[in-house]
Amino acid sequence: MALSGGCFCGALRYEIDQGEYLSVNCHCSMCRRTSAAAYVTWLVVPKEHFRLNSSEPASFASSDHGRRQFCPACGTPVTCVNTNHPEIVDVTVCSLDDPTAFPPSRSVYTDTRLAWTDPER
Ligand SMILES: [Zn+2]
Ligand SMILES: [Zn+2]
Predict the structure, then answer these.
(1) CATH number of 96's domain
(2) In Å, how far are 1, 3, 69, 96 from 8, measured between CA atoms?
């Protein structure tokens, strides 16, 4: 039984093989701007464990090595691929049908973290 997820409107759907995957909060400025959220929680999935079950996502280059992929109909950010790590696809944890399955275990780019993301607030 695979994990499943997709975009808000349902045009993009994907499956991920069951497994242990790293879940990371990214506080970089690119994730912040492209999601319009304070940070993005990513699931780091080896490419062979990820399958798109729908039409292809739209995408744009967010850096010289990263491409962000999103639903062309509703805009939900779903995946990010990086030519520096071609064996990996990063999947937005909150596009999973069950985001509770992968609580983040670490944060990266905390030097650019917004102070008000402090959990004490
Ligand atoms: Zn959609
Ligand atoms: Zn980021």
Answers:
(1) 2.170.150.70
(2) 22, 17, 14, 10
120 domain residue, yes or no: no
Q: Classify residue 121: in a domain, yes or no.
A: no
- Structural domain of residue 33, as residue ranges? 3-114
Looking at all shown ligands, the one closest to residue 110's CA atom is 2
Q: Ligand 2: distance of its center to the CA of 39 in Å?
A: 7
* pTM, full prediction: 0.94
pLDDT (tens digit, 9 = 90+) per residue, 2-52? 999 999 999 999 999 999 999 999 999 999 999 999 999 999 999 999 999
